[in-house]
Amino acid sequence: MINSERISNEFAQQTAIDSPSFKEAAMADYLRQRFAQLGATLVEDRAADQIGSQSNNLIFRIAGTKPGKPLLLSAHMDTVGPAEGVEPVLIDGVFRSAGNTILGADDKAGIAEIIEALEVLAEQEIAHVPLEVAITVCEEVGLLGAKHLDFSLLNAKRGIALDTTGISDVIHKAPAANRFKVKIIGQEAHAGVIPENGISSIQIAAKAISRMQLGRIDEETTANIGIIKGGQATNIIPRQTILEGEIRSHNPDKLQELTRQIIALIEEEVETARISVDGTEIKASMSLDLHEEYPSMHVDKQAEILQLITGAAEAINFPLHIKAAGGGSDANILNAHGIQCVILGTGMNKVHSVEEEVRVEDMVQIARLLVEIIRCA
Ligand SMILES: [Zn+2]
Predict the structure, then answer these.
(1) What is the mean pLDDT of residues 222-240?
(2) What pTM value is reported for the model?
(3) Are residues 61 and 150 in the same domain?
(4) Long-range contacts for 285-288 (Cβ within 8 Å, ≥24 apart)?
(5) How far is the CA of 76 from the centre of ligand 1 (A)?
(6) Residues contacting 110, CB < 8 A, separation 6+
(7) What positions carry a catalytic annotation?
(8) Structural domain span for residue 18
């Protein structure tokens, strides 16, 4: 039923088009033309101008051939770097890049699988409900495309994002994340001559960090300080230190509480760092840039979309495991906008590295599962 040569060629063609985040124009052109061949109509939002990308998010609509609630399929067209001159190489049924770039199976394996499923639906005249395919830009840079997607253009209230590794996982749960950047300002002074007149911003940061709970906090919560920058020379008491970190949790209350605690520790250490120079009190200070990176998602195991997927998988003896993810993706944003959406594996592996790979046979299997899901939807 699935045409392994066609999906293989489709994938090779897509990955040979470079599409790092913000530079998706060529890929968007290819997709417009490819989906037109499949009889889809296109609507675009206005994300490009809003986020400074070359392309909008593309939404393709395929008319239903039977009545029913529309189903959304989603994937992203951008890739991480290095992605200049990607050359897909197929050896023994496995695609890899020629070596110096990523492959872009993340997420072009997903797009190729969607296209193959649509080819098969038409070829076999399989009756299906109306389909919407949302292909976003700038997923890899903070889900920017999805965050600026014009949701009034989507009718579906249930969907599947094709965007996780392996082929047997269905992600129904993913954490929310907060990200912060704190700038600590101390007081500069010559470290050897008059250290009494200085307040070390590095020391304030160190004291605060040493009191923080970091790493895995519990089974659903993590925290990390990922960047620390400060100081100019060994003989200068450092005036400015920047700390950047993140907190993730599947539980929104824990996320807010841990974020509050971590920021409070920095505030306390800044507050106690004060000196007196010639009768004048000098205090440290700080500025905080805190934002919600993405909201959490949690699709109930009894939810209709999961019943649909597990039912279709059982019908074709496809082993699936329902799991939680450790990070956010477009699906977090789709769920936050009222679309019940889970994430399917695409067969891609070792993503975000030059060793990235995908087996053609795994793409074939996922396309087969997709056809069955759409047939049952
Ligand atoms: Zn991805």
Answers:
(1) 97
(2) 0.90
(3) yes
(4) 285/184, 285/185, 286/182, 286/183, 286/184, 286/185, 287/182, 287/183, 287/185, 288/180, 288/181, 288/182, 288/263
(5) 7
(6) 75, 161, 162, 163, 346, 348
(7) 78, 139
(8) 4-174+296-376
Residue ending a domain, choose from 246, 261, 293: 293
Tokens 């993140």, residue located: 246
Same domain, 301 and 288: no
Provide the pLDDT for residue 99: 85
- DSSP secondary structure letter of residue 331: H
286 strand-pairing partners: 184
Q: Is the pLDDT of residue 20 over 90?
A: yes
* CATH number of the CATH domain containing 269: 3.30.70.360
Residue 66 Cα, ligand 1 centroid: separation in angstroms?
Answer: 31
d(CA 57, CA 79): 14
- Asked if residue 253 and residue 234 are part of one domain, the reply reads yes
Residue 40 CA, ligand 1 centroid: distance in Å: 23
Domain count, the chain: 2
Domain boundary among 293, 310, 326: 293
Q: Using the mean position of ligand 1's atoms as its centre, give its distance from the Cα of residue 60 in Å.
A: 19
